[in-house]
């Protein structure tokens, strides 16, 4: 008899976040082996993740619903699965056969209070240790995050399972290159930990010596502040804010860019790096542990937050583009496959 798995997808109002994409990519691949259902709000796209039964648990994720999520009774009203899976806190205490799995994508709340809302910060700060101890298994997306969990919370290493991400499944671009000016690309939410400010300041340093643009793809609360910075630096006409883009638009942006810059000062993984490497693009990235874990020797590195170091890296690449080969990057990206990660996830569900 197939084992039943209930997914807590209530935080996923849509499929735009990396966590939602990951959950869909992984569980869609193992739906034939398990009876998988997902608890969602009424606004979640019904056509998403074929093979996974969507169960409307609430109209919206209201405060009342959030409080109810703490109780196993709430989840048992939806079903009594063999495995209950969540990407967020809290982790309820189930009686009987149900085993619990918590996925930890990062520990940004320990790195800097500014990296998330006060409400989210307080929830994670107060509840992470309890959630890690309650869960029967903990999944992380990188070895670095696993090490951080062991270091900060004393969780046994054998309880942790590293199941990495892979490059997003983007459509093949029919773009043969940018028809206009050359551009440097950066992709990510406009938020402090992504550090687009350092990228913009670095671009300003080279703007007089390189005739091209900077394109930032992504939405976020920092848009007005970043636009103001470009005006202050006198480069507003050279910096394009693309906003939220479709998968097709993103694929075209990768195909047409000169290089991809990933300037984050904090990440749990490095999904955008994989997308760039997979697209055959030169990646210039901040030298932080999860970026190194993902890119290996296939990226150019700069010191996080150092605008001078990044500007120099951009100029080095611009001056020596003739020597760039996409092969090492694509080979490195090939080490991260959704099929492999889905196999690891299925093994974990079988063993619980």
Strand percentage lies at 15-25%
Radius of gyration: 21 Å
H/E element sequence: EHEEHHEEHHEHEEHEHEHEHEHEHHH
The profile of the biggest β sheet is: 7 strands, parallel
Short description:
This protein has helices spanning 18-30, 63-68, 72-76, 108-111, 118-134, 143-153, 196-206, 223-232, 247-256, 271-278, 289-295, 307-319, 327-333, 338-351, and strands at residues 4-8, 35-41, 53-58, 83-86, 99-104, 137-140, 160-162, 182-187, 212-217, 239-243, 259-262, 283-286, 300-302. It is α/β, with parallel strands linked by helices.
Question: How is this fold's topology laid out?
Answer:
Elements: E1 4-8, H1 18-30, E2 35-41, E3 53-58, H2 63-68, H3 72-76, E4 83-86, E5 99-104, H4 108-111, H5 118-134, E6 137-140, H6 143-153, E7 160-162, E8 182-187, H7 196-206, E9 212-217, H8 223-232, E10 239-243, H9 247-256, E11 259-262, H10 271-278, E12 283-286, H11 289-295, E13 300-302, H12 307-319, H13 327-333, H14 338-351
Parallel strand pairs: 1-2, 1-4, 2-3, 4-5, 5-6, 6-7, 8-9, 8-11, 9-10, 11-12, 12-13
Helix pairs in contact: 1-14, 7-12, 10-13
Describe the model.
The chain has 352 residues and is α/β, with parallel strands linked by helices. The protein folds into 2 domains: 4-166 and 337-351, 3-Layer(aba) Sandwich (Rossmann fold); 182-333, Rossmann fold. The chain is built from 14 helices and 13 strands. It has helices at residues 18-30, 63-68, 72-76, 108-111, 118-134, 143-153, 196-206, 223-232, 247-256, 271-278, 289-295, 307-319, 327-333, 338-351; strands spanning 4-8, 35-41, 53-58, 83-86, 99-104, 137-140, 160-162, 182-187, 212-217, 239-243, 259-262, 283-286, 300-302. The strands form 2 sheets. The protein has a 7-stranded parallel sheet. A 6-stranded parallel sheet has the order 10-9-8-11-12-13, sandwiched between helices. Helix 1 (18-30) crosses helix 14, helix 7 (196-206) crosses helix 12 (307-319) and helix 10 packs across helix 13. It starts with a strand and ends with a helix. The mean pLDDT is 93.
């Amino acid at each position: 008899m197939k084992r039943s798995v209930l997914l807590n997808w209530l935080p996923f109002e849509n499929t735009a976040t990396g966590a939602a994409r990951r959950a869909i990519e992984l569980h869609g691949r193992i739906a034939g082996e398990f009876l998988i259902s997902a608890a969602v709000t009424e606004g979640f796209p019904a056509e998403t993740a074929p093979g996974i039964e969507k169960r409307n648990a609430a109209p919206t994720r209201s405060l009342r619903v959030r409080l109810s999520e703490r109780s196993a009774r709430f989840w048992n009203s939806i079903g009594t699965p063999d495995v209950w899976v969540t990407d967020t806190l809290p982790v309820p205490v189930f009686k009987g056969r149900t085993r619990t799995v918590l996925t930890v994508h990062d520990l940004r709340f320990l790195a800097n209070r500014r990296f998330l809302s006060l409400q989210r910060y307080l929830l994670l700060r107060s509840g992470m240790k309890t959630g890690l101890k309650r869960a029967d298994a903990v999944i992380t997306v990188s070895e670095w995050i696993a090490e951080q969990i062991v270091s900060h919370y004393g969780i046994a290493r054998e309880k942790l399972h590293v199941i990495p991400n892979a490059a997003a499944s983007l459509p093949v671009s029919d773009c043969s290159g940018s028809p206009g000016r050359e551009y440097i690309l950066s992709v990510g939410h406009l938020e402090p930990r992504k550090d687009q400010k350092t990228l913009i300041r670095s671009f300003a340093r080279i703007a007089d010596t390189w005739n091209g643009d900077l394109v930032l793809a992504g939405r976020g609360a920092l848009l007005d502040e970043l636009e103001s910075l470009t005006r202050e630096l006198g480069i507003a006409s050279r910096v394009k804010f693309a906003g939220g883009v479709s998968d097709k638009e993103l694929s075209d942006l990768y195909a047409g860019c000169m290089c991809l810059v990933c300037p984050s000062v904090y990440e749990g993984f490095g999904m955008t790096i994989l997308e760039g490497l997979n697209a055959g693009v030169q990646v210039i990235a901040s030298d932080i542990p999860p970026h190194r874990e993902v890119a290996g020797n296939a990226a150019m590195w700069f010191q996080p937050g150092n605008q001078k170091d990044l500007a120099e890296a951009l100029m080095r690449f611009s001056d020596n583009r003739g020597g760039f080969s996409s092969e090492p990057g694509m080979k490195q990206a090939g080490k991260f496959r959704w099929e492999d990660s889905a196999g690891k996830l299925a093994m974990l569900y079988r063993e619980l």
